[in-house]
């Protein structure tokens, strides 16, 4: 990937074919949104003269990045949209709700005072009804449950002699605060394969912040994260993520949105399975896996598709005897982070997700896997079925603690 | 055959003619403007859109420079909706004679044109598209002007003062009796119908066609018809006009214009004022010169090329091209040829159209015994749209959709916003490249002067953006069904519209524009099967 492109040249590449519009999951279910082409390359032309050019419907973009993936002309549509959203918010201000939802890191930190209490309150119906009426937070969308102890509180690095590799794990807010079991399972898998894994405290990657138009806040996070990540890269660490959205943000978005130089971070950052696949290709992965005679549906998160390294988890899981993973291939789940929590977007989000529900029914699976925490939340909400991170299946197949519910 | 009666018939719906119409009307002289095509059918929509500061002429002709500067300032005041005060810059490259730059700075100062030397490093940082070889650069008060909008503003203002205007009517004969004009014959160019108008005076403001019009009265005017081609880039390469700091030549000006940038021009003598076909060789030549100022020019997408014909007046035959005066000439045919009631105004520039109109109407008024002074330099052409209306527009059309619509629509903006407020389906952008809403198109289609899709295009800019009308053309036509003029003949409308677009695309058919055109061919020829429809 080259990072030295002239953004004006990219805008010239759009041939107005509207393929992005035809594939935008939001446009498919509502006519309230003018679509990726209008907000992206169309208005980008006007932004050369009027930096705040934006269509009033821009807030309907869920930042799923499907548009980028489908564009046959290499236009970075969603980055244009995100910047426009930032301008829109700078112009009109964001509702308090979005300012809160966009600052996942703050919510999570605050909740740490009493996670159990927050979990209880977060799903009490009358409270949610008030939340919807006052702040516009959809009452029917369940909040994820805070873990009693964060991943960083629980993780104890293991000393590994002659490690085959050393990595810094960037868990992201979701794993750290809601699903520490994912990070813990990863730690087991890495240790088992002789990989040294360290952790550190980072800022939120900033993706939810960007999606809510709080560009300046996100830029602050980006600066801190880039500096810290670089210091680890200098010491020879590879950066590992389990959340596709964090991966995408660290590798591509900082550059796209804030013009930061992230060539090195892009080269040195891997999705956990991407890294494991590399080990496997180098013959360094332990492939003595026990059979798991089970069926799972697999949902590919939009942001994983957007980073563009395929689906390494499926390739690794294929090594597990008797495990049957059915790729649902149903497109966006509709939640897109905080998007589906917004009262006016909840119905849109639920409707987009119907594709996934249908695919699950057609496949006849009763449990699913996906890398993204938010996708897990939505698919569980839509289908009522259990859902996990694929790394947990791998840990299970190694006979390691997998933190899967027994 | 209806007969109308006015004091003056003005021939030519260009900048000059519409300026004259307004001036006449404001002085209380009854007048009819006739235009053979749509308004701005001639050179006034086929030009560079540069509101000259005078800098270009300062060294060679200070009088012309001063005129430009003065009119530039007047137009910024009276037509702020039509002028983009971009400012300009003049940049010299190592191969340009430094002595010229010195002369130029001095001449500008003498003409009253404010220039300021710019820091090259800062300039390059601001506009990385400019050549790092630039040795000197100065700022000037150049601006961009929207010709079409200015013409309509003139006409709308004139109509408020009681003047009349008909488009698609060609002056086809001049009636004279006893050495004086008595009336004219008009031919409707859409249906061939003939009408006549009684008048005391004809003002010939037919631009490059002035010779043809004079010939109808049996007289001769020597015009040099000088074709100039322009290239439209897909986006604003800079936010200022960029001139080359050397004696004026081909392809030495870039004008940012709304969403696009125009590079021009060439200069080729032609016989026929309708010779507006841009050629590939002209495009190539211009890119060769433009590349000196903007080295990466080939990477930027060109959406079309188009050409106009400069009406250059030649008092004595001989000199041609750029050496001929850009100043205008007012010809009193009573004095020159002994024909009472005919006045011709020829030559000039868009920038000085108002002054040309003022001088012409001074003469005409004197002949008609009217001594009301000219007020066109003081009274604004349009009333500014209220900020309350702008805010309301922002909610339905977004930024900068509301602003663009307000600039285009002027006084009619309120109605268009109201309609969109009442009916959300009217907020949809029919032309997404240029941000033209369904509401605006609907309004324009019903304004009484819109006969073809191209008329709507000119008034709204629909189809003038990146896609060059691929999507908005059929979308619009489909929605225009409730307008009597658009209920039949859809295929002809689309064909005429697209052929006009493709005429401009053909000479620049490469890169992304080629892909765009492939898509367009696919949609119209295959999907719509237009290629298979036979002409019965
Ligand atoms: C390539 C190019 C670039 C230019 N750039 C600039 C610039 O940047 N700045 C600037 O100030 N000037 C510029 N000019 C010059 C400027 O455009 C012209 O001087 C100006 O537009 C002429 O206006 P007009 O009204 O005299 O003529 P036109 O606009 O040509 O109007 C004459 C009208 O008369 C109509 N007509 C003719 N015969 C008849 C008939 N028999 N019956 C009815 N109607 C008839 C025609 O259809 C036409 O619409 C440029 C010119 C060219 C060619
Ligand atoms: S952004 Fe890409 S997909 Fe969308 S219209 Fe332009 S070229 Fe087509
Ligand atoms: S990011 Fe997703 S929701 Fe937003 S415009 Fe692109 S495809 Fe549509």
From TrEMBL, chain A:
Gene3D superfamilies membership: Alpha-helical ferredoxin
Pfam families: CCG, Fer4_8
Residue ranges of every copy of the 4Fe-4S ferredoxin-type domain listed in the record: 5-32, 49-81
Keyword presence, Transcription regulation: no
InterPro entries associated with the record: 4Fe4S_Fe-S-bd (IPR017896), 4Fe4S_Fe_S_CS (IPR017900), Cys_rich_dom (IPR004017), G3P_DH_GlpC_su (IPR017753), Helical_ferredxn (IPR009051)
UniProt keywords, alphabetically: 4Fe-4S, Iron, Iron-sulfur, Metal-binding, Repeat
NCBIfam families, per database record: glycerol3P_GlpC (TIGR03379), PRK11168.1 (NF008369)
Protein name stated in the entry: Anaerobic glycerol-3-phosphate dehydrogenase subunit C
UniProt organism field: Heliobacterium chlorum
Lineage of source species: Bacteria, Bacillati, Bacillota, Clostridia, Eubacteriales
From TrEMBL, chain B:
Enzyme class: oxidoreductase
Keywords, sorted A to Z: FAD, Flavoprotein, Oxidoreductase
CDD domains per record: GlpA-like_Fer2_BFD-like
Domain annotation FAD dependent oxidoreductase: ranges: 8-331
Names of required cofactors: FAD
Oxidoreductase recorded as keyword: yes
Keyword Flavoprotein among UniProt keywords: yes
Record EC number: 1.1.5.3
Cited SUPFAM superfamilies: FAD/NAD(P)-binding domain
Name of one Pfam family that matches: DAO
InterPro entries: BFD-like_2Fe2S-bd_dom_sf (IPR041854), FAD-dep_OxRdtase (IPR006076), FAD/NAD-bd_sf (IPR036188), G3P_DH_FAD-dep (IPR000447), G3P_DH_GlpA_su (IPR017752)
GO molecular function: glycerol-3-phosphate dehydrogenase (quinone) activity
Homology family: Belongs to the FAD-dependent glycerol-3-phosphate dehydrogenase family.
The protein's name in its UniProt record: Anaerobic glycerol-3-phosphate dehydrogenase subunit A
Lineage: Bacteria, Bacillati, Bacillota, Clostridia, Eubacteriales
Gene designation: glpA
